[in-house]
Design a protein that fits this description.
alpha+beta; Aminopeptidase; 7-stranded mixed β-sheet; 24% strand; disordered C terminus
């Protein structure tokens, strides 16, 4: 198995949206409201616009396993208002929309994507890889902890969105070329 990370192209938008819908259905079957309208998640149309914008800015990446799209991640220096302070943003890259195709669960695609985010952080001389996770998704929190992140805090009540669990990991903690820590939650990878 060979995993390769490449910059997403406009033709990848349909695949990324398919991954989002696949994962939303999987989460719903497990009792989670993550990414659903009921859970105040970004509707798929808004998600597609956001990913398209990030993709055109060169911020979205595709993980391929043996040439087949297996996951995606967006990495930039922006976050929703109120999640991270200006100082925290100035010293970090922010991970968005990391999704792994369920067919590739357990193959470390997620940890490879996160290691790529760390490499981008180091190349930009940023100290941290930061992300916000769905506040009520304890399994997702466990996944990020298993991937070496720690919970920085739950954002305060001024944050209106459903993703207020703030996680971070030092970019230098990934060895160059190493996919990172393994996790007990294989399905999120």
């Amino acid at each position: 198995m060979t995993t390769r990370i490449r910059r997403a192209q406009p033709a990848d938008l349909g695949t990324i949206c398919r991954l989002r819908l696949q994962r939303t259905g999987w989460l719903a079957a497990r009792g989670s409201d993550q990414w659903t309208r009921e859970g105040r998640g970004l509707p798929i149309e808004s998600f597609a616009r956001a990913v398209d914008h990030a993709m055109r800015a060169g911020e979205t990446w595709i993980a391929e396993v043996d040439g087949e799209a297996a996951g995606t991640i967006t990495v930039n220096e922006r976050a929703d208002d109120g999640l991270w302070s200006p100082g925290e943003l100035a010293d970090a890259v922010i991970v968005h929309y990391m999704i792994v195709d369920l067919r590739f669960a357990g193959l470390h695609v997620g940890t490879t994507l996160l290691a790529h985010a760390a490499a981008l952080a180091r190349s930009r001389r940023r100290t941290w890889v930061r992300l916000d996770a769905w506040t009520t998704n304890a399994e997702l929190h466990a996944y990020y902890r298993g991937a070496g992140f720690h919970l920085a805090r739950i954002a305060g009540p001024e944050v209106s969105g459903p993703s207020a669990a703030l996680f971070e990991r030092r970019a230098e903690s990934w060895l160059p070329g190493y996919a990172g820590a393994t996790s007990q939650l294989q399905a999120y990878r």
